[in-house]
């Protein structure tokens, strides 16, 4: 009997107009957007590749060690799975300067030069967004008349006369409708995969395929949540028109209105804390102390007509000082670069002094950078990360957002992966400093002068960044997935309980 | 007879569940908007004043010497916040709020004397959102309330306007009266329009009342006028979706089919199309990269070197009057370097602007975008406003440059070769005589910009209403 019911429901659903519409709309939207998104990804990849080349080129142009200040720049490759869920992958900066005078944080990211920052004015689209909006709508459209419709038509009574329990009727309806709803999802994802394979620039690893499978799985769970919401409404209402209206109200609230309200409210209520000012003060103090210690050194070991340490050696060449001060991102540091192409003869005797001075000053700089780095990291945590986490947690009340966050984690475009990138840049900075130490760069003549040969950068360690493996990402997503599953079970149980005790 | 039908429909609507839903939703959203922007304008204006005065203070500290002004420039120039920003936030998070007229980052030194680049205007490239990790969302401003909620509500009120009467057979009854089909359609249209406008106007007035009485905004005559046009745009937009609802409703026989179709049209047209087209057009006109731009900037430097041979170095600078050839060529170089830098920067920004303008014109196939852009231009926020701001900055930069040259010319002790320290006047400058930048929000352009959007919306409405009309005339009852 159960199978008969499923077959009846399945046929009834497949024959409907809305199934055709669901199929056509989902397929056309996914295909059109995949084409657009693949082109967009290719553009970002090309921009990344040129950026990497240009940045490598820049480093090799530095003639002295100190001249490399502000020239080592590393880039974050675009994630091909951002086509599924763009997350933060496209929006956040994707390039960071690596310098020994500053520990890089999220605040120091920049975007590739080819990108037009104004284009962020247009909200971005990805496949998950399409599923998030369209699938939930379709699920509700399929579910709203499941019980209410039969009740109106009087067929519910007829079905009940057969030897079949009420939960079984619900289960049969659920299974058959889900089968109909999953069909367009799977087909559109397959089409998207075909388009992926046509593009030469997208190379999917086995890991990536697993991630795509995960996205599909989460999509199905999400679909089921909305179908069950619709089923619950349908059981509770007498008329299909009312059921549809209630379903639309719930849908527009959960999918469209609630998330915006939360972000809006959190943005307005969360005042930029005073911690930032305090932290900036602390950073300034650290650099003042640096300046004092530097001066102390110069006093202990004075040079004629130079008590600032800026022009210990006379000669020709270029000198750059860099001292950005931005109190909103706590970016404050002091960096210097120097390239003497010729040292005057009378300054030659001061070279050992200059070497000692730079070795002292640069290691002092590194210490100051590390101290300020901790302060900044803490402030960033307090000001931005906590606020975003609060908003995210509040948004989790809507299954649509839970779906978004879970797929974001699976695709590796969430905040965790950005954090991973930043951490690997911080590690790379340490590698570069170690490289300088190995080469005794700080105490070498090549730190400030290129008159006896330019620096050979060929053995500078390269930066490499690997995305976290699937297991880690799955762990980040597991909370949301578990919640979605729990919602499914609870909704189904409530529906069964209500339906069992209801008059037909 | 028309009045009878309008009255009947009105009573029907006012008693329905959807009317209660609409009222509650609109009032909640408008209240949240009001609370959110309660002191937004005040804090924003204060921050603006503070930043402007800080920037002026910095300028004042440079007035003891004209050369300092030549190096440091006018400082940061800020965009004035608009008092109607609660109507349309206009993507503030993505648009820079200032332009920087500041010093160059390079300097060269040789044999004890040094030379540094003179001031240049630069437009910030990075957007403040680069490190914003908040989840994506749309702002709760009038623009979004109107474009998303009002259109959805319009659909909910009209999807069954004709199809359910067909289902119940009441349509035949109504038409047996002496009323034309056109009049029936028009009266259904107006009944829905009036029904929705009641909660909308109540919510909007509540919102304005809260903002106004709390003193967070002070509205003048022209602002009331602009608010009026914004409300007009809202009604026009509402009408588009009422007409669409009537069109679909008259084409289908079942209300549930009608709602299914309408909802799908709505999601695709309002929610998805703007995003898809936005990312699509970004690929149509790629802009030049920063590196290409840097490479071009090196040209004047190379040119100067080749023209003057290797003999040119900094000790050739002198304070002699009239200026020596060395001083003049350095002055020329410095000026040219700054000009080229500025021009390339401007070109880069212009290319980016062109890209956005193209995307904006294509994206207007969705009336939701037209509505947002129309409201943005009337509220004085958003992208059009930013372009206007850049225009003003450009004009001011020229003014400032002329001021520097004229002040230098007035000093008899200067060699009149602006750029190197030796060639520039060292006299103090009176702070009052320096032209100051003040950002004006001008609405003459805004009205024209909004007119385009209004006409576009009108076109959509006429087409859809004519469609509904024709299709209803041919309906089998």
The side-by-side strand order for the widest beta sheet of chain A comes to 1-2
- The general outline of chain A is elongated
Count of distinct strands of chain B: 5
Order of helices and strands of chain A: HHEEHHHHHHHEEEEHHHH
Measured as a percent range, the helix fraction of chain B is: 55-70%
Q: Helical segment tally of chain A? A: 13
Please outline the major beta sheet of chain A. 2 strands, antiparallel
- Compute the CA-based radius of gyration of chain A: 31 Å
Average residue-wise pLDDT of chain A: 87
Please state the oligomeric state of the protein chains shown: heterodimer
Determine the structural class of chain B based on helices, strands and strand pairing: mainly alpha
**Which two chains touch over the largest interface?**
A-B, 88 and 79 residues
Beta-strand percent range of chain B: under 5%
Number of contiguous helices of chain B: 16
Determine the N-to-C terminus distance of chain B: 20 Å
Low-confidence parts of chain A? none
Poorly predicted spans of chain B: none
Order of secondary-structure elements of chain B: HHHHEEEEEHHHHHHHHHHHH
Describe the structure.
Chain A has about 500 residues and is mainly alpha-helical. Chain A folds into two domains: about 1-35 and about 125-270 and about 480-500; about 40-125 and about 270-400 and about 410-465, no CATH class. Chain A is about 65% helix and about 5% strand. Chain A has 13 helices and six strands. Chain A has helices at about 1-15, 15-60, 125-145, 150-155, 155-160, 165-200, 205-235, 240-270, 275-300, 350-395, 400-410, 415-440, 470-500, and strands spanning about 75, 95, 315-320, 325, 330, 335-345. In chain A, strand 4 and strand 5 form a beta hairpin. Chain A is elongated, with a radius of gyration of 31 Å. The model of chain A has no long low-confidence stretch (mean pLDDT about 85). Chain B is mainly alpha-helical. Chain B has two domains: about 1-35 and about 150-275 and about 455-475; about 60-130 and about 280-450, no CATH class. In chain B, the strands form two sheets. A three-stranded antiparallel sheet of chain B has the order 1-2-5. Chain B is elongated and about 100 Å long. At the A-B interface, helix 2, helix 3, helix 8, strand 3 and helix 10 of A face helix 2, strand 3, helix 5, helix 10 and helix 11 of B. Strand 3 of chain A pairs antiparallel with strand 3 of chain B, so a sheet runs across the interface.
């Amino acid at each position: 009997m159960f199978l008969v019911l499923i077959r009846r429901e399945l046929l009834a659903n497949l024959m409907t107009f809305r199934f055709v519409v669901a199929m056509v709309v989902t397929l056309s939207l996914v295909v059109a957007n995949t084409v657009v998104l693949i082109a967009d990804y290719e553009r970002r990849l090309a921009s990344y590749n040129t950026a990497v080349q240009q940045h490598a080129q820049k480093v090799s142009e530095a003639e002295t060690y100190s001249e490399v200040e502000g020239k080592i720049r590393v880039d974050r490759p675009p994630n091909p799975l951002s086509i599924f869920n763009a997350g933060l992958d496209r929006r956040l900066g994707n390039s960071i300067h690596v310098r020994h005078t500053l520990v890089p944080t999220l605040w120091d990211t920049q975007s590739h030069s080819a990108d037009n920052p104004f284009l962020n004015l247009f909200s971005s689209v990805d496949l998950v967004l399409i599923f998030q909006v369209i699938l939930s709508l379709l699920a509700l459209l399929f579910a709203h008349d499941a019980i209410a419709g039969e009740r109106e038509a009087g067929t519910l009574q007829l079905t009940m006369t057969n030897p079949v329990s009420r939960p079984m009727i619900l289960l049969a309806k659920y299974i058959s409708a889900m089968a109909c709803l999953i069909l367009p999802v799977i087909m559109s994802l397959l089409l998207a995969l075909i388009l992926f394979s046509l593009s030469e620039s997208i190379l999917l690893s086995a890991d990536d395929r697993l991630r795509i499978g995960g996205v599909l799985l989460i999509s199905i769970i999400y679909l089921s949540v909305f179908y069950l919401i619709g089923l619950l409404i349908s059981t509770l209402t007498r008329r299909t028109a009312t059921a549809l209206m209630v379903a639309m109200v719930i849908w527009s609230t959960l999918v469209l209105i609630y998330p915006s309200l939360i972000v809006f409210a959190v943005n307005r209520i969360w005042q930029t804390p005073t911690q930032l000012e305090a932290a900036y003060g602390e950073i300034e103090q650290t650099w003042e102390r640096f300046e004092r210690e530097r001066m102390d050194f110069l006093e202990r070991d004075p040079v004629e007509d130079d008590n600032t340490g800026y022009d210990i050696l006379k000669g020709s060449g270029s000198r750059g000082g860099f001292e950005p001060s931005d109190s909103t991102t706590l970016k404050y540091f002091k960096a210097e670069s120097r390239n003497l192409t010729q040292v005057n003869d009378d300054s030659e005797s001061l070279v050992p002094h200059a070497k000692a001075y730079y070795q002292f000053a640069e290691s002092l700089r590194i210490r100051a950078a590390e101290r300020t780095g901790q302060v900044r990291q803490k402030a960033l945590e307090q000001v931005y990360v906590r606020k975003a986490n609060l908003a995210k947690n509040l948004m989790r009340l809507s299954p649509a957002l839970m779906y978004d966050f879970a797929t974001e984690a699976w695709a590796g475009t969430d905040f965790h992966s950005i954090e991973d990138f930043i951490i690997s840049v911080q590690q790379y900075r340490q590698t570069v400093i170690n490289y300088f130490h190995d080469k005794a760069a700080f105490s070498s003549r090549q730190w400030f002068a290129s008159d006896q040969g330019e620096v050979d950068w060929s053995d500078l360690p390269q930066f490499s960044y690997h995305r976290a493996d699937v297991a880690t990402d799955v762990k980040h997503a597991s909370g949301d997935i578990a919640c979605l599953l729990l919602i499914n079970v609870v909704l189904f149980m409530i529906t069964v309980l209500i339906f069992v005790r209801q008059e037909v | 007879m028309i009045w009878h039908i309008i009255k009947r429909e009105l009573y029907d609507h006012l008693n329905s569940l959807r009317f209660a839903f609409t009222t509650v939703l609109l009032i909640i959203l408008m209240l949240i908007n009001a609370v959110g922007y309660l002191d937004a304008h005040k804090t924003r204006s204060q921050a603006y004043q503070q930043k402007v005065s800080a920037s002026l203070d910095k300028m004042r500290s440079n007035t003891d010497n004209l050369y300092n002004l030549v190096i440091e420039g006018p400082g940061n120039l800020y965009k004035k916040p608009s008092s109607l920003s609660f109507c349309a936030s206009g993507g503030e998070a993505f648009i820079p709020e200032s332009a920087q007229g500041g010093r160059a980052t390079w300097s060269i030194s040789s044999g004890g004397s040094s030379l540094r680049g003179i001031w240049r205007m630069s437009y910030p490239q990075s957007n403040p959102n680069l490190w914003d990790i908040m989840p994506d969302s749309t702002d709760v401003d009038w623009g979004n309330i109107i474009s998303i909620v009002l259109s959805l509500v319009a659909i909910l009120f009209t999807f069954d306007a004709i199809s359910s009467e067909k289902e119940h057979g009441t349509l035949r009854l109504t038409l047996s009266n002496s009323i034309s089909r056109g009049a029936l359609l028009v009266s259904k249209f107006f009944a829905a329009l009036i029904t929705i406008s009641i909660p909308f106007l109540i919510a909007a007035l509540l919102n304005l009342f809260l903002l106004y009485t709390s003193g967070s905004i002070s509205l003048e005559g022209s602002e009331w006028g602009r608010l009026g046009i914004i409300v007009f745009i809202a009604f026009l937009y509402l009408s588009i979706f009422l007409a669409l609802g009537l069109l679909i409703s008259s084409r289908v026989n079942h209300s549930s089919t009608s709602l299914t179709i309408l909802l799908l049209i709505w999601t695709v047209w309002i929610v998805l199309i703007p995003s898809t087209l936005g990312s699509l057009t970004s690929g149509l006109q790629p802009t030049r990269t920063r590196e290409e731009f840097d490479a071009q900037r090196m040209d004047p430097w190379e040119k100067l070197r080749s023209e003057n041979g290797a003999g040119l170095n900094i000790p050739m600078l002198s304070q002699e009057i009239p200026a020596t050839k060395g001083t003049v060529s350095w002055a020329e170089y410095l000026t040219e370097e700054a000009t080229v830098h500025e021009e390339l920067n401007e070109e880069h920004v212009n290319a980016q602007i062109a890209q956005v303008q193209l995307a904006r014109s294509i994206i207007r196939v969705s009336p939701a975008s037209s509505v947002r852009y129309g409201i943005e231009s009337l509220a004085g926020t958003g992208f059009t406003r930013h372009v206007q701001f850049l225009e003003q900055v450009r004009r001011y930069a020229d003014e400032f440059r002329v001021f520097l040259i004229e002040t230098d010319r007035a000093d008899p002790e200067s060699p009149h070769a602006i750029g190197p320290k030796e060639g520039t006047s060292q006299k103090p400058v009176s702070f009052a005589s320096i032209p100051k930048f003040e950002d004006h929000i001008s609405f003459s352009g805004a009205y024209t910009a909004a007119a385009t959007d209004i006409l576009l919306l009108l076109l959509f409405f006429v087409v859809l209403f004519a469609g509904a009309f024709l299709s209803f005339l041919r309906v089998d009852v």
